[in-house]
Automatic annotation (TrEMBL):
It comes from the Eukaryota. It is an enzyme of class 1 (oxidoreductase). Homodimer. Belongs to the LDH/MDH superfamily. MDH type 1 family. This is Malate dehydrogenase. The keyword Iron-sulfur does not apply. SUPFAM superfamilies: LDH C-terminal domain-like (SSF56327), NAD(P)-binding Rossmann-fold domains (SSF51735). Residues 1-61 form the Lactate/malate dehydrogenase N-terminal domain. It comes from Gossypium raimondii (Peruvian cotton). GO terms for biological process: malate metabolic process; tricarboxylic acid cycle. Pfam families: Ldh_1_C, Ldh_1_N.
Amino acid sequence: MTRDDLFNINANIVKTLVEAVADNCPDAFIHVISNPVNSTVPIAAEVLKQKGVYDPKKLFGVTTLDVVRANTFVAEKKNLKLIDVDVPVIGGHAGITILPLLSKTKPSVRFSDEEVEQLTIRIQNAGTEVVEAKAGAGSATLSMAYAAARFVESSLRALDGDGDVYECSFVQSDLTDLPFFASRVKLGRKGIEAMIPSDLQGLSEYEEKALEALKPELKASIEKGIAFAQKQPVTA
């Protein structure tokens, strides 16, 4: 199933669910994990705007699965303890729009150019790897559930007053020239407390080129979601 197929199935589902959230609990944190996230988050934003309750600090595209995969693959490659590894992943949540910032891996490790390319491609295509391993009989449902649970737990910690909660998420952003962008954010009781612009500074040459290369595809996906929502008026 392509992401276009997913869009045709999920776009209206997301629209309907977000309308219900807007009507019944407009102050809630909204976590969008339905693919294609690059389009469904803009759909959710437009619906909330039409309902007059849009708060960009409380709308999140859950891209945690990309971080989980990046951390896992790096830990395996470099023989590190998984719990110690943190790789920020920026951009979007599909194919080349997924950009792991391996140069900013914690703890600091060195990668050859070949390792960077291999790891980046594997992280971008990990969903396909799972589907192929299951011979078409399923997808990455368990890891997606884990990623969702992790992001929900982080949100609950932030709502409870924990002042040290950071996650990567696809959100309304001014870090680039795109209206939505996945990056690391600090979570608080009112949603996003801060972006982390330093994550986009000092990128490697490979990452700089990959960032520019992903923008056209991500821009098109965002615009597709916005156009869908604007053509589908919300229910009163």
